[in-house]
Design brief:
The chain is an alpha/beta fold and 557 residues long. 56% of the residues lie in helices and 9% in strands. The protein contains 23 helices and ten strands. A seven-stranded parallel β-sheet has the order 4-3-1-7-8-10-9, sandwiched between helices. A three-stranded antiparallel β-sheet has the order 2-6-5. The chain is globular. The relative contact order is 0.12. The protein binds 2-acetamido-2-deoxy-beta-D-glucopyranose (NAG) (2 copies). The site of one 2-acetamido-2-deoxy-beta-D-glucopyranose has 6 residues, from loops. One 2-acetamido-2-deoxy-beta-D-glucopyranose binds next to loops.
């Protein structure tokens, strides 16, 4: 995003609430705008709301200027207000320059009103949890209100700047067919960025003398403003048929949907094998005190730590070597699924050998099922992941099946992570072997390799219609997921596995950022007469950097 002073409060808030902005980016309105196929009535409805926003800004600045104590601040706010008034004056001309003519009458948008009402309430001191009975008394309290007001404006400007830059990055500079190019250029201009920055700098400056509690109020106002702005984008009426949200673009009466996801590092923030090793080490006896051997005798925690460390570095090293050895020296001309399958068969041998080594080492011996379950229940999942699945399994219309496919050694660990609220998720993984709730050190092998993951994927879909009516989405991030990612109608890559990217590149897979993929598909949707055409084995995988993107794409806001 650039620009905003490092460590400044405005920047901190923007980063903190960045995931919300994703819902604006993936809104039908923005996708259609970006792809250039938005119908001009929808566009004009949208830009005609600018007038209401600008009027509210002007009013809010007027109040803020009065509140500000410092002359320099007063001047800065006055300049901002002047800028807004000037924009109001030339708004019609601007729209004409972008190539459109505003209608004489404009309807006031409900979501726009929600934001402007909130802004003006804030600017007149009606802030939740704050008391300004009657007239605001001290100059100090007034300064605080100026900061609150700026806090409710800053995210709005930043969001527009951010969205337009995301769109502009996808535009061909020479594309004269894109009818919204001039509009997007103006929003992503240096001038617009400078204005957004100016507001953020001023917000930072006005907040310097505030207490922790008051800063929390600003954070809440910033967040609320951001949400209302995102709502404004999401709730744009009458936007034509869109590719997203996926669940709205398809009719549950005509389609079934199955979602598959990997577990380690896709759901979780840490690797489950490391977690199991940690449980083993934490619960092991400190040392072999009496040397008494039973059939479940355990290694001491010191020995376990050493053994685990050797095993895991050997795995990492040999994994890299294995990937090197299966990478073809020449990049494929096109998507080469067969070649990839052959290469991954060699990786399968390696994965199986690695698991056998773990069994033989005895590190998985003597773990208590209760300890494993407790660790599972406390497992920290990736931000936004739980919320997404909670919503998708709740959805009455879609009745989506969700399957978790994992190399994890212990299905109980996964199931206990889902116990509280996601127990409807189907788990396909290996299992640890127990004797009276204590692990024997054996793994009951089910899903050890890319081939076996694909097998599990195919097994789930056995008997499902093959007529394009059964849609599949696979979300994963490791080489083990590649075949399933490719086989699914929509393969979404999360995380940043470099081996996955390298293998993919060599076998002719295209990695496309999801938003840009959707913008392209939206264009094709128009050209292709309205059918969205998600199909497996296309050789295209979509990349995302957060679960918020997946949520926004599939369910919308
Ligand atoms: C405006 O706010 C009201 C009250 O919070 C809410 O019910 C409504 O859905 C909002 N309208 C839009 C279009 O977001
Ligand atoms: C969806 O799945 C249900 C249950 O398996 C089946 O009865 C129905 O025919 C499927 N619908 C479509 C459109 O394939």
């Amino acid at each position: 995003m650039g620009g905003v002073v490092d460590g400044g409060m405005a920047r901190r808030f923007w980063i903190k609430f960045r995931n919300e902005s994703v819902f604006a980016i993936y809104s039908p309105f923005v996708i259609c705008l970006a792809s250039g196929v938005l119908d001009s009535d929808s566009f004009l409805y949208f830009v005609s709301q600018d007038v209401h926003f600008l009027k509210a800004f002007a009013q809010a600045y007027e109040l803020a200027e009065e509140y500000a104590d410092d002359d320099e601040d007063k001047i800065a706010i006055r300049e901002l207000r002047k800028g807004v008034l000037k924009k109001l004056k030339v708004h019609d001309t601007l729209v004409r320059e972008w190539g459109f003519e505003l209608p004489k009458e404009s309807t006031l948008d409900n979501a726009a009103v929600n934001y402007t009402d909130f802004l003006l309430a804030t600017a007149s001191g009606k802030v939740e949890g704050e008391k300004f009975p009657g007239k605001i008394a001290t100059p100090f309290e007034k300064t605080k209100l100026a900061a609150y007001t700026l806090g409710a404006i800053a995210p709005c400007m930043r969001l527009y700047a951010f969205i337009s830059k995301e769109i502009q990055a996808l535009l061909d500079p020479d594309d004269s067919d894109h009818i919204y190019k001039k509009y997007i250029d103006s929003l992503s201009s240096q001038k617009f960025e400078a204005a957004a920055l100016q507001i953020e700098d001023l917000l930072d400056k006005l907040s310097i003398s505030l207490t922790g509690e008051e800063l929390e109020v600003i954070e809440k106002l910033y967040h609320q403003a951001m949400k209302l702005e995102v709502d404004f984008f999401s709730a744009q009426p009458n936007v034509q048929q869109t590719i997203a949200p996926f669940s709205r673009a398809h009719d549950p009466r005509e389609h079934n949907l199955t979602i598959f996801s990997d577990f380690d590092m896709t759901f979780t923030a840490i690797d489950s094998s490391a977690l199991l090793a940690e449980i083993a080490i934490m619960t092991a006896p400190k040392a072999d005190l009496n040397g008494c051997e039973t059939h479940l005798a355990r290694m001491s925690s010191v020995d376990l730590r050493t053994t685990w460390s050797i095993l895991s570095s050997q795995y990492t090293e040999e994994y890299e070597q294995c990937i090197e050895s299966i990478l073809p020296s020449e990049t494929a001309e096109g998507f080469n699924y067969e070649g990839l399958c052959k290469a991954l068969e060699q990786l399968s041998h390696f994965e199986k050998a690695a698991n056998s080594r773990v069994i033989q080492s005895g590190v998985l011996k003597g773990l208590n099922l209760e300890d494993i379950k407790r660790a599972g229940e406390h497992l920290i999942l990736q931000e936004g992941c739980r919320g997404f699945f909670q919503e998708i399994v709740k959805d009455e219309h879609w009745k989506t099946d969700v399957h978790v496919l994992s190399y994890c050694w212990c299905g109980d660990l996964i199931r206990s992570a889902f116990l509280s609220d996601l127990n409807v998720l189907n788990v396909h993984s290996n299992e640890l072997d127990y004797k009276e709730s204590i692990t024997t050190g054996e793994i009951i092998k089910k899903v050890e390799s890319p081939m076996e993951k694909l097998q599990a994927f195919n097994d789930v879909l056995k008997g499902c219609s093959n007529d394009g009516k059964h849609l599949t989405i696979y979300i994963g991030g490791s080489v083990g997921d590649l075949l399933c990612l490719l086989k699914a109608d929509v393969g979404i890559v999360i995380g940043s596995s470099s081996s996955l990217r390298r293998l993919g590149d060599q076998f002719g897979i295209s990695f496309v950022p999801l938003f840009s993929g959707l913008v392209k598909k939206q264009r094709e949707l128009k050209e292709g007469g309205g059918s969205s055409n998600w199909k497996g084995l296309s050789g295209i995988l979509y990349t995302v950097s957060s679960w918020a993107e997946i949520h926004a794409f599939i369910l919308g806001s």
